[in-house]
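Format notes (please read before filing issues)

Several people have asked whether sequences and structure tokens are stored in separate files. They are not. Every record keeps both together, in the order shown below: the sequence lines, then the token lines. Line labels are part of the format and must not be stripped during preprocessing.
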Amino acid sequence: MHITQLNRECLLHLFSFLDKNSRKNLAKTCHKLLEVFQDPLLWSLLNFHSPVELKKDNFLLGPALKHLSICWYSERVKVCNIEDWMKNSFQKDFCKRHENTVSDFLLDVCNRCPNLLSLTLSGCGHVTDECILQLLKNCPNLKSLKLENCVQITDHTLEAVTLHGTSLRTLHVDFCRNVTQAGLERVREKCPSVMLRADRSANMIPDSKPGKKLMLEKSSRKLVQL
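Then the structure lines:
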């Protein structure tokens, strides 16, 4: 039995097990498989592991996209998370090659993927507050926003969450050193239903509820006295 003799549902199921490159290569073999590749049902979930992958043509963006993850764990990501004024010329040249890649991609998502439910960004040092603001405005169904090691994210993003994150239920700002404790407390106050986590953010203070934090501080003082 030839693969093209399978019905549409079976082909979609088969494609779902393949990575983006394999899907693209298989789609090049015949018109029927190309149609499967272009089916929106195949593209409800997208995972990327570096900014370079965002420039390829091995995936489709559209209203069917529900879950998006861009996680860059390479050693090179440390360069992008150095404050601009601290970078040397080599580091600046390296960042310049892709400094707008993720932001431009996310703006494209804003325009084409209004049904997005979850977004995870890790190591995306060039993503700005303005970019997250636009995404919150254009993707009103967003329920989960997880940001990790994104140095340009500040309290402006937290403020945008309180104004436009009407559907948001989960917010992580881990290792985002330019958010503050005051900004986190503002989110807790204005969005009590949001599950907030800020591990190693806000001057490297782990996230905790105000009452719990007070108890921990009292316990610490007792240990010091002992």
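For reference, the curators noted about this record: Confidence is low (pLDDT under 50) at residues 204-226. The longest helix spans residues 210-225.
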